[in-house]
User: Fold these one by one.
Assistant:
Number 1:
Amino acid sequence: MERYKQSILSLVLMIGLAGCAGHPVIYPGKMEPGTRTYSFAFSGENLFPVYSLHQSVSPKMDLNLHVGVPFWGSGFSMTYLAKGIPGATRFTKINAGYIYQQNQSVELNIVREWHHRTSKLSSIMLGPRITWILKDVREDKALRFGCVGGLAFRKRLLLEAGYTHDFALNTMKQDPDSNLPTGHHPVTGLSVRLIYMGK
């Protein structure tokens, strides 16, 4: 019975801690200035959904507040429309933010987006991602490079996947005390999320 309980606990920890670096939610399209909406992100990075509030402050910029339970996944980010205008079918967006996670990080995403309001597949997003882990489970730092992509359906569901890799050599990939992956571990850079977007 004791072994069974340990197996269940290990499974829960694997699911909840598989991705140990959080990521801001990049809302598809560009909201009209002055409008506000929300989203819920379900992922292996967090046991509980992360709530995000998205506020458009200008034709070029949106601000985002992320709230996790109890704190994991919480943070803030901004999305800047580097190329394109609201209502266009093609955008280039720059997203930067800070997320509090087991491995705290600052992140930069440069996303190319193809946007179709009337299609079932309303957005396709793809671009490079840079994650700078400020403090991991061993209070170490790491710099990771990779990419992120997403498919949005009717601006209600967003399926997002990304990966960043740490190219540093001779680094400790697992904390010997907690057995959790550090900021250098490959699994730390893996992210798969399903995001529900409100109106």
Note: The two ends are 47 Å apart (CA to CA).
Number 2:
Amino acid sequence: MRHVLRPGRLPHQRLMHRPPPRRDEAKRPPIRMSDLILAVLGVTLLGGFALTAAFALAAGWTVS
């Protein structure tokens, strides 16, 4: 009798297991929501500065 192979599986293929977490990762506290909010606000602020500078350069404004 022939064995039917499922797509993506080879015969006798070992399953990939997740490695155990490192010691450093186990001791690390979870990320707080306030840290994520501050990060998003910082990226938004930097993006606003970049867009302002791009529009200023495109309009021909110069700092004298």
Note: The first helix runs from residue 23 to 27.
Number 3:
Amino acid sequence: MKTLDEFLILYFDTVMKNGEASDSGDAKLSNKLYKKSNQLLQKIKYNYGLDTLIPYLNHQNEYVKMAVAVNVFPIAQDEAKEAVENVYKTSTNKLLSLQAKFILKEMDDSNSRFYK
């Protein structure tokens, strides 16, 4: 079995590539990478716990920061929301900033998928 560090490297790399594919409009590659990142996330969650991702809410890469925030929101709401707000306010990537804006709305809505 891979170590946590090995899983994290693979997960972060896949998330970054997914973000780049999405930004470039390559939906087929983006969907493939999204599925792979979810599989890696499930392995991290099952084998090491979701809380192992919390320190990466401050990751230098915005795609990683957003992915981690969305996934740890159920266990670290304030920290996750702060990470998304940071991306929303500081990102030069207009698409990612818009995505962050919508995620913040979902995080504020108690009926959203984040609370289920």
Note: The chain has one domain: 4-115.
